[in-house]
Amino acid sequence: MDVAxxxxxxxxxLPMKExxxxxxxxxxxxxxxxxxxxxxxxxxxxxxxxxxRWQDVVKGTPKLWYRVTTGDPLxxxxxxxxxxxxxxxxxxxxxxxxxxSAKSEPHxxxxxxxxxxxxxxxxxxxxxxxxxxRALAAPMAPxxxxxKLVLRSPIPTLKFQAAMVPLLREMYIYGIPLGGKRTxxxxxxxxxxxxxxxxxxxxxxx
Length: 206
Description:
Layout: H1 3-12, H2 23-33, H3 41-48, H4 52-59, E1 67-69, H5 74-83, E2 89-94, H6 105-113, E3 118-125, H7 130-137, E4 146-151, E5 170-174, E6 186-189
Helix pairs in contact: 3-4, 5-6
């Protein structure tokens, strides 16, 4: 019996039968059932296969699809971008999780296309197109709050503009020139004194 089916049976053992649970409560239970998993999208897909009702709940709960990692299959990453609707995204992308780094590019492409929805992002990139490098070096991410960024060869100059990342409050940069200076490790904490305004010193240029 797979994990999703086991959870379904456990719910049936509760005093209140699963079918009697309010939809909102079932959605909360499913949400917390995936929080310790990394990656989690395959589990979300399994949950949607338990029953027609669970399928409806999973499809109707964008928050179940907000967390995307390198370990998630590409088809589920694409599905997550659709099912999560307008929900802010948590991104964890590490090129070294791929056995063949060349296969990482499609994942990165999907993530960069949805950068405007990033909220928390950890990105480690080895190979990428020039367009993706430029996007990561000067992100247009109005919802982004925290960022850990590692860009390897070729390494661009980081060109953040406050208006492009107005909510950014914490940033970790590794191996990226900041204003023409190479840094192996840089940390910027509490960049914003308020959640709606970014400081002038956030902007970097070559």
